[in-house]
Fold each of these.
Amino acid sequence: MSERFLLNARFRPLLWLGMVFLATTTLTRLALLVATGSGVPATPANWAYAFAVGLGYDLLAFAYFSWPLVLALWLLPRRWLARRPVRIAVEALSLLLLFVLLFVAVSEWTFWEEFQSRFNFIAVDYLVYTTEVIGNIRESYPIGLILSVLALVGIGVFVATRRWRRIHGDSVGFGGRSWLVGAWLAVSVLGTGLVSGDMKDRRDNTYVNELAGNGMYQFFAAYRSASLDYARYYRSVPLPEAFAQVRRQLAGPGVVFDDATGIARHIDSARPQRKLNVVLVSVESLSAEFSGLYGRPETLTPRLDALARDSLLFTNLYATGTRTVRGLEALSLSVPPTPGESIVKREHNEGLFSLASVFNANGYKSLFLYGGYGAFDNMNQFFGSNGYEVHDREEIPKARIHQENIWGVADEDLYTMSMDVFDRAHAQGKPFFAHVMTTSNHRPYTFPEGRGPWPQGKRESAVSYTDWAIGDFLRRARGKPWFADTVFVITADHCASSAGIAALPAFRYRIPMWIYAPGHVAPGRVAALTSQVDIPPTLLGLLGIDYDSQFYGTDVFQRPPGKERAFIGTYQLLGYLRGETLVQLSPHRKVDTVRPSLVDDAGQPAIAEAPQLTLQAISDYQTAAYRFSHGLMRTAR
């Protein structure tokens, strides 16, 4: 019976699509393997795993992908299928599916080039912001040429293989062919219930695990896991125990908790208060590895490197995540990266305790200034609902824009707008706290001509321009009446790349930070392990502000020895870094303990679980997720 189903002329287009599908996905996997280079050691075991496991995911993805053709071939009556117009319609559907398949293959290549992974949560997330994403693609790639080549290849393959899908007779009735559709449905349902996107992640090399996946399948798997409930998917401990553990981590000099169970507390600063302005610049994708101060032989940031002579330089700072919204979350809320979507983009994220809450309570004007359209990633809503006055690209007249792309205006234009806003705040006689978010160091990596000898369209060039723009900003700011009373904090929203052999390549998360305030903050170097969530309380400590706190971060200068740690993560994998140990929490209540590589892309071997570190990791992430979901992060009313 199965032979009749599969070889019957009615289903020849389905067989043809299956062969083309598997050929395309296999060639895509091979191309990505070649592109990865030394990231995948050239061993038969790695290749066999990637292609054998990958074949399983390809077959399941094909079962989903081919449903339009399956339904058409099942439902069309025999007499209809004998008519030329209907057969042309089946051919048109087959050609459309072929084009979709080829388009996905090219998209996978560009996504791998940027993120070194199959489609994941980032791809799902970007679908919400089609204007920016499609604009970025148009500005970064020769879309006309790519689509033309795809059309030629698609038509060429379609014509060359026409004999394999030719329908010339039909010997199976509706009841008989329904068996095939029933089997197709069973495979689809069982595959959905029994197979998950992370079942392939059995190798120590993350690149191999990614290659073993299928882009289409991984996309929809990421869509299903976009919202992850911590209590349901991650290892937990009793809440009272978790909160008690977090309180012990947050305890220190000048800390008085409000009650016996929560983390709300009052902090008395060890320094006298100084009402200085604060400008916090979070630079798009500024990895530490770009700077000579952090070991790069040929620095891309000479101006920032020179600034270190008069700055407090943090040399062991780690970003919490790999997306802008994660950096904004850490810098505004001082909270670990809870699983799934960032708090910046979740519902019911208004009225939260934030860095602006503290500054506003101390008579400051709090500002968020962005070089792009703040509707992207829900930035305007989030900051506007949590104590910040929001300014974005829409306020900049066209005549004052030196260069722009889909992500935003050139950094120098953002700084010009920012200084205008600072001038107005200063004229009102109020100190200001400003969080400035840049965009230039983002694909398509374009910037105004004449700023330096850097070719357009290269990441290294964009980093160099970003450095130039910061130097130009500080040069112009020195002529402002508010400059002498301003603390400048320059750091990154996240690292430039999160790819590596390890699932959580810790060395990639290292970011730089300069605190520059001549006459107010003494220059020096801070080598202690620091998390991005520690920046808000450390800054408040330097200003000598007493405040009520709900932060998970601590002032690095008041933190008792032995409590250094950093949070790093993806949307699913939650990392807790302390010393030479990295605890990784993942769905299915899985906990892995590894020896992290902090200097290069090496493997991170598994080590024996450290129960106390595991408890600390679980407690921080569990309580953070619980507090947000239960409305406990809100400011007191």
Amino acid sequence: MLSLDRRKLITSSLALGGAAGLSAAMPGWARAANGGTLARKGSDVLSGEYMKMTVADAAFQTGKRNGPAVTVNGTVPGPLVRLKEGQNLVVDMVNDSSEGTSIHWHGLLVPFLMDGVPGVTMAALEPGKTFRYEFPIRQAGTYWWHAHTLQEPMGHYGPIIIDPKEPDAEYDRDYVVMLSDWSPMNPHTIMAKLKKGEGYFNYNQRTMTDDYPLSADDRRMWAKMRMMPTDISDISAVTYTYLLNGHGPEDGLEYLFKKGERVRLRFINGAAATFFNIRIPGLPMTVISADGQNVRPVQVDEFQIGNAETYDVIVEPGSSDAYTIVAESMDRSGMGLATLASRPGARAAVPPLRDPPLLTMEDMGMSGHGEGGMDHSAHGASGAVAGAAMADMDMSGGMNMRDTSKLPPSVKVGPGVDMVAMNPVDRMGDPGIGLDKVGHRVLNYKQLVAAKPNTVRTPTRIKEIHLTGNMERYMWSFDGKKFSAVTDDPIRFAFNERVRVKLVNDTMMAHPIHLHGHFFELVNGAQRDRQPLKHTVIVQPGGSAQFDLTADEPGDWAFHCHLLYHMHNGMFQVVTVRPLDGDKS
């Protein structure tokens, strides 16, 4: 029986089969196009105060799919960076790949010139060059690193664990669960197809013979609006294989345990375009950390994790030999799989994919119900009622979802804005699209409470930012302005200023919004000194979310949607915090 020291060893994966065998099985074109190098699955471990990370082109295979990849130190994901709170870190990044690259230390508090964002804090590192990152480690928790280029969805990402100075939880085993999506189709090709037709990858669209619980009136209403109630994710499992630590559903990834042990699972969503619904049938999960920051323990049966978020959970396997870890895509087109196993080869049942969810009035910003009034169910007559009610409102002229006169003057109205949320209520209590009626406990942001008190300061102003887009043209932006149009007009905060930021989602898609260089406090109903700290927040469709920010990290910081193709198509801004150290202006 395998025994692991909980503080000294992280087993990222126990791969079945060798790299040499996989390489031989790959077709000649796949090997030749990438120099014959096949990526290994799973992460090696790097630790200490100095490390070298080499980026290279490679090939990748999972299931019946094979194609191009980008590795760091030869693996997908790249190495697990294991650090200690209070240490210093020096990393030499060597670019042996064919494209410019970088490393962004997602969630780490670093000097802004070490943040790794081409076009904001550095130029992309060109092929054949080396760049040195150097900074102190000022925190503890679960984080990750990734390229801030289109190499990211090809494999240029990996986990970070920073051990605290003092132990913060008791457990016997410690595992990383790095979630991602991979396609043999090049990311540049994916982006080009989305620009030509935003529904290109959506295989859940309505047809004459579908069995979605929509009435004839519902279908006419959606057709009149030129919108799809099934537009949940830009890209589905037809194109993507969902990976856990680089392993596809057929690869047999195992995490071993002994009965009676407490197992820490560190979930990291490193996907380019996929929200995941996480559950382990028959085994409750106790959430102890969100985005690397400790929270009061809350027991759940499922949680939705948006792109770039992290959640640490404790599980205590019972008498069963095995439990299935299910990472189902939010559109329910596919899933990533792994097994908690008491012995090698033990398996549990794999649940079938659930029915895909449908968008409703709340996702169009037309909710009058407020908290608890959400209905994303794909079952019953609720969709028909919502559709009829919305149709009545359109006919009466009382609510026009394209009425741009409702937008504040800060939003630029133009071809990049094709929808306005008419009543964007706070949706912090929403568990995520499709999870409000599943019949078991599902995490939502209102359940997150900081484990330790935060410093209480009253915000001196409110900054409202609208998440805008034109889905038919696949245009995304903040306040109607693409990044290319706002590089000279950043979001400005004074150093140490306390600001309440309100994000209003005028689109029908959920957006995970990430601010570099800072943690912010969710305004989620918790006591003011216990508002949970996060670096990424999901803003639900047609809804709003608020956070309190202390702008205490001077410099220029990226602020963007972490759906990769939304970011690269305009939903990106720069937050500038001034003055810099020594700057008197």
Amino acid sequence: MPQPHSKSMSLEEKAHSLDFGKVQGTTADGVVSYSSDYDTVDDAIYPNRKAFRSYYDGIYMGYKWQCVEFARRWLYINLGHIFNDVSMAYEIFKLRSIRDVVNNVELPLNAFANGSLRRPEVGSMLIWDEGGEFEHTGHIAIVTEVFDDKIRVAEQNMNFTRWPNAQPYSREIEAKIGAKGDYWLKCAFTGSSILGWVTQTADTLHSVQLPEPSPALFQIKLAQQNQSDCIESPWLNIANEDEAAYVDMMKGHWLTSVKEDYFKYFAVSQSAVDALESATDELHGLFMHATDYVLQHPELLHSFELPSAILPKVTRSWDNRHNQLITSRFDFAMTAQGLKVYEYNCDSASCYMEAGKIQGKWARHVGIKNGLDNGADLFKELVGAWQECDVFDAPDRTIHVLQDVDPEEDYHALFMKKAIEAAGFNCVRVIGLKTLTISEQGKILDQHGNPIRWVWKTWAWETALNQLRQEENALASHKTDTTQAVQLSDVLLNDDIMVYEPLWTLIPSNKAILPVLWSLFPNHPLLLNTSFELSDELKATGYVTKPIVGRCGENIQLIDADSTVLEDKGGAFGEREQIYQQLFALPKIGNYYVQICTFTAAGHYAGSNVRVDKSMIIGKDSDCMALRTLDDETFLTL
């Protein structure tokens, strides 16, 4: 369920609070504000997450009944305008465009700081920063009237009471005019602050100008630590299971597989990391919106090549477990020409340990003092993501980590096991499927004979689906023969087992989502033009062909504007449907093409690293290398 901001209610407010969905008030132009008291939700009316999504004229407004939903609905009803999805209300202060739905054009937005010489106007969006009463989220209200000494606003999720005296606004905010005509609004909440107001206007006079970072700040630079004899010294603690497994896989204490790269690392600027963090959070929201759109338009699903028997389960997973992610990873190309996302890996994303532990330990071992470790907070964020899970009601609170028999999956699974245990859960690791059995009651049992109820997996969902494609009526059959080998589909598609990452991650992880995303957000600065068909426009820019369910870079082909094949990688997915994506090559730095990976915890940025390869395609054997963040000034002098 979506969560409100942290506004605390007084005893008087609680006494007069309205149940979720009850009308708090109506503006003079007829826009209704509803109570968002989630503690009073009627499960019969709102049985799943789908029921919380608000649409008007078939257009998605947001989650019922949060502050952003009201603002978007007011603007659409009164002006025909829709602003882009944001993760948090305070991020609206940085938006610089809004879409005119009727004319399908982008209109300029400008932000004016509290105290600006330009006052808010009717229809301006008043924005609070995160913190205090609006911890993590910020807040938004619509300005309905403006006076010298006050403004009036309309909003949702501020409190859960009726607007006083049946007035057409929620409250008044005191204003004061300074000696120079500067217009100030008072924030009555401790620890909170009003950032200012956002108005649809092309006039930038007195507006907040977002800094335009130098393109040089979005390069990736190769750096090298002074060499020493530490190359011969062990630096990973093999008494820790995950580190021992990593050392076994790498055949020693190595960050990369190339000895000549032992002291090399990559650096990015603080501005670049800020952009990566913002892009990660925004893109997660865009991919979630596109996932919802696909599931609302079943005619699109055929492009994803999912077994028809699984579609009801996918829809049910989305309805009940929207945004219940633990891990996911975005793959970016970042150059002075811009930042572009290739795809979203939110089903069994890899390289978390390399980013969250290995690159930091390597930097300390070789004595790097400058800059910050880009994965320093990743483990803590993963622990927090697990702690936010509220689905575990078993007395033993046991989560099973399922992995294949694979050296890379060994350390990845062990790293996640440590995060799960740090979050306060019991964790049992299951290697392969041979130790699993099925009880007479049809329960899946682990190697100790205990039932499996919650799973985090390194297996890809596609592996389980392949079994369905090979077995007729597999979903309809129920195996009770305890001597029969347990299949992956028996575990992951079992109605009595909850799996992370959820089944709906099949949609955003499938590259068929990329053309849908481009159609929903055409010319978005973070996206690449992508289509199911090879268009003349793509031929003119150069393009990349990708199988919709490919992994590890397999069966990807890069073709330039002259129809020259730049790179062609074989693999096991050549028979699958493919998409065509605009060519935006990875930057070549030194001997390598370098890809930025950002990692999330519960859908929010949690860290980053780089993967490198001498080919233009990152694959299973591409090395991870350390990534450090330098302040902008230091970075430019590197």
